[in-house]
């Protein structure tokens, strides 16, 4: 048995710590994300398979950073969007104002899907009602 293969990644802990450091000191935390089919972001904002997201409390809502996923709600051009980023796809977290932060290698693993109870969906179309008898 290989002990090292069972050791959990430090990456989610470091990302959460740096996010907290940014917020505590009035900096704007940004994450750089490598975009694949597992990443749920507005594709209009993806450039060279990368997107940078502002994850400050002022820019997003319902931010959740567990060991496998970062999920949040944010507006892009005024349109609310659900964002789902596998922790393995975060390339960096840094403060916008001074660039201080940390970069990470992109892991080639597939995380489990985020659980529905952590993510409240936003309707993408017009509201509709059904008559239930």
UniProtKB/TrEMBL annotation:
Coiled-coil regions listed: none
Pfam families noted in UniProt: SspB
Disordered: annotated segments: 102-133
InterPro entries membership: SspB, SspB-like_sf
Signal peptide range: none
Name of the protein described by the UniProt record: Stringent starvation protein B
